[in-house]
């Protein structure tokens, strides 16, 4: 736990919620870099969706983190984050992956941007890939055409116009000042408690993936802005906990994509489009699972 005096009006520290699944050294790196990311009082809450690893045990034993485990086991990202946020009184909370490394002062920059903009319901940093390139973490909400085009084609035709528009990659790379986006990556997200509570937190129907897209959409509909703060920087290692067995996550991604698209375009007259999207997603899921299994086979 941070030993800095609390500065929040509630008197409570900012809460950093880290949803973890069998984490290792990446969680230790997360915790140590977090200590340099802010001068504010904070509490680190690890919601452990997996087995009790040494990294989790050590952080809990040292007092650096409070660990929670849901009685139902692995409940997915959004439901675990909601559980970690329960009872919060501070003005701000962070939801982040354990394979994120904070740059010094990054969390302070996010909070300062939020305090300067009372319309900001969520704020996200510039997310860097391990090679130092910028990941497109601030994106437009998918339209029906863009969502379908991106969902069906991005794996086989990454340069298609729908994926390019969806990601807003060039804007994310070149931006230097805070600006609004349709949604922000849930890999590292600062949330205003009032906004998060107003929309009911994450939609727990999403086990993994698209819960951040859905949250950004609902925040926007409620009158809040999703603000990208490129001066704040983190590095995301991406998928450390499930790279050894990607098939379940591929299936979860496609299930969440289908839920999101069907929720937004559920009118009776859009049924043929939903059918086409469903078929396309099912085909793409099978292809991606097959490719992932082929890559895991030992070379002969």
Keywords:
Spore Coat Polysaccharide Biosynthesis Protein SpsA, Chain A; 300 residues; two-stranded antiparallel sheet; ten-stranded mixed beta sheet; 12 strands
Overall shape: it is globular
Structural class: alpha/beta
The value of Rg in angstroms is 19 Å
The CATH architecture of the domain at 14-142 and 166-236 can be named as Alpha-Beta Complex
**What is the tally of beta strands?**
12
Low-confidence parts: 1-6
Helix content: 40-55%
For CATH, the homologous superfamily of the domain at 14-142 and 166-236 is named as: Spore Coat Polysaccharide Biosynthesis Protein SpsA, Chain A
Oligomer class:
single chain
Q: Helix count? A: 11
CATH class of the domain at 14-142 and 166-236: Alpha Beta
Question: Could you state the order of secondary-structure elements as H and E?
Answer: EHEHEHEEHEEEHHHEEEHHEHH
Question: Per CATH, what is the topology of the domain at 14-142 and 166-236?
Answer: Spore Coat Polysaccharide Biosynthesis Protein SpsA, Chain A
Tell me about the biggest sheet? Answer: 10 strands, mixed
Proportion of beta-strand residues: 15-25%
Spatial gap, N to C terminus: 50 Å
Mean pLDDT: 84
Q: Can you characterise this structure?
A:
- InterPro entries: Nucleotide-diphossugar_trans.
- GO terms for molecular function: transferase activity.
- Keywords: Transferase.
- Pfam families: Glyco_tranf_2_3.
- With 300 residues, the protein is an alpha/beta fold.
- Helix content is 42%, strand content 20%.
- Strands 1, 2, 3, 4, 5, 6, 7, 9, 11 and 12 form a ten-stranded mixed β-sheet that branches. A two-stranded antiparallel sheet has the order 8-10.
- α2 links the parallel β2 and β3.
- α10 packs antiparallel against α11.
């Amino acid at each position: 736990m941070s030993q800095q005096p609390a500065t929040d009006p509630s008197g409570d520290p900012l809460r950093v919620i880290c949803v973890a699944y069998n984490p290792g050294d990446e969680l230790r790196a997360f915790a140590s870099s977090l200590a340099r990311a802010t001068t504010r009082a904070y509490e680190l809450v690890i919601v452990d969706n997996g087995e009790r690893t040494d990294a989790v045990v050590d952080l809990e034993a040292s007092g650096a983190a409070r660990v929670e485990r849901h009685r139902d086991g692995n409940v997915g990202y959004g439901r675990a984050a909601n559980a970690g946020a329960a009872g919060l009184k501070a003005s701000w909370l962070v939801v982040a992956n354990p394979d994120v490394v904070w740059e010094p002062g990054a969390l302070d920059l996010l909070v300062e941007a939020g305090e300067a903009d009372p319309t900001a319901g969520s704020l996200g940093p510039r997310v860097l890939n391990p090679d130092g390139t910028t990941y497109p973490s601030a994106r437009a909400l998918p339209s029906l055409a863009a969502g379908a085009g991106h969902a069906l084609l991005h794996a086989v035709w990454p340069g298609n116009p729908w994926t390019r528009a969806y990601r807003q990659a060039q804007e994310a790379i070149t931006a230097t000042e805070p600006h609004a986006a349709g949604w922000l990556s849930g890999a590292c997200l600062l949330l205003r408690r009032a906004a998060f509570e107003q929309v009911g937190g994450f939609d727990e129907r999403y086990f993994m993936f698209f819960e951040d897209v859905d949250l950004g959409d609902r925040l926007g509909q409620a009158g809040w802005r999703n603000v990208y703060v490129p001066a704040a920087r983190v590095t995301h290692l991406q998928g450390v906990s499930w790279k050894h067995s990607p098939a379940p996550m591929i299936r979860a991604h496609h299930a969440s994509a289908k839920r999101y698209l069907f929720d937004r375009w559920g009118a009776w007259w859009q049924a043929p489009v939903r059918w086409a999207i469903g078929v396309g997603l099912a085909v793409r899921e099978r292809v991606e699972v097959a490719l992932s299994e082929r890559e895991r086979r030992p070379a002969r």
